[in-house]
Specification:
The chain has two domains: 2-168, Peroxisomal Thiolase, Chain A, domain 1 (3-Layer(aba) Sandwich), CATH 3.40.47; 173-319, 3-Layer(aba) Sandwich (Peroxisomal Thiolase, Chain A, domain 1), CATH 3.40.47. Helix content is 31%, strand content 26%. It has helices spanning 17-20, 28-35, 48-62, 87-95, 113-126, 150-153, 212-233, 251-259, 272-275, 282-292; strands at 2-9, 13-16, 39-42, 72-76, 104-107, 132-140, 158-166, 171-178, 185-188, 206-210, 243-246, 268-269, 301-308, 312-319. Strand 13 (301-308) and strand 14 (312-319) form a beta hairpin. The longest helix is centred in the last third of the chain and has 22 residues, at 212-233. The N and C termini lie close together (10 Å). It binds coenzyme A. The site of coenzyme A has 20 residues, from helix 2, helix 6 and helix 7. Coenzyme A (COA) binds next to helix 2, helix 6 and helix 7.
Length: 320
Amino acid sequence: MKILGTGSALPKHTVTNDMLSEIVDTNDEWITTRTGIKSRQIITTERFEELAALAAQRAIDAAGLVPEDIDFIICHNVCNAYVTPSLAALIQHILGIKGPNCPTMDLNSACAGFIYGLEICEAFLQTGRAKKILFVCAEEVTRMVDWTQRETCVLFGDGAAAMVLGKGDNYLASKLTSTPMPEVIYYRLPCEPTPFETGEGIDTHIAMQLKGREVFRMAVTSAQKDIKDVVAKAGLQLEDIDHYLLHQANMRIVDAIKQNFDLPQERFHHNIEYRGNTSSASIPMLLDEKIREGVVKRGDLMVFNGFGAGFVTGAAVMRY
Ligand code: COA
């Protein structure tokens, strides 16, 4: 597998910490010191699926292709207003990709979704079932939190990232894990009532709940291990890797992970300061930003690492 082109798209509305302090009992100092976040983009009037399609179109343009060249669309998305059809099918419609020979599907592996999705794309490319996959990670996490809960609403932002993947030898190693711990992060939507369910033991709507300290600890511990394991699996040394692109959940998490490695610290990229946590979109948005800045160049070696609700983790080594 190799990356043929990347793209991303952001909502137009930027929300600073000071703006949040007018909504909940918080302040810039708390948010900055605990998370590193200064601002984030939040969906207002945009339609989510159009934002995701815009990122997709930019990735197709960057690959020098046209939408009709795509023969599989895979999206990662935790939650959006459409439970069905899939976000992938909506993007196919918006981009005007005619069927029926471009299958579409969505995945959900929380904030580790980019790594899980790469693995699925690799499988389809390896078997020859697809030649040009459009892979989109798009999230509107700010629609999952309770905006009266200062513990969660200050952490997140919205955004979309996409890439076109084709056959190649650049996907060098990967590692996925899942440890059943649904209580550390979860979000429940209500289903439609039926005449048959009794309601007993059934919670209705619960906005996102997270045990921040536990997630913090597990994220740092798993990332340190997953990164070492996946680099060794690729037959490489940690110092061979040019770029470390980690899930942007908290600047302190990124700092704690990188401090464990005796490496030039600037190889650990970050943009959480002005994006917030955008779940599965965070790593590919960061990658697209660094490619467009000319920081990540063809031939460079990259490590991706993510973690999230499940508790799931993943890491991959890839050459750009
Ligand atoms: N503004 C001001 N004060 C806040 C606040 C806010 N937005 N949110 C929480 N606080 C208060 C708490 O009420 C608590 O007050 P108390 O000491 O009087 O009880 C205090 O700040 C400390 O809260 P705590 O939760 O212990 O802070 P923390 O240092 O653990 O940081 C997170 C909290 C969420 C930033 C941190 O744990 C984290 O980043 N965790 C991982 C992120 C995550 O889970 N992401 C989702 C999955 S990828």
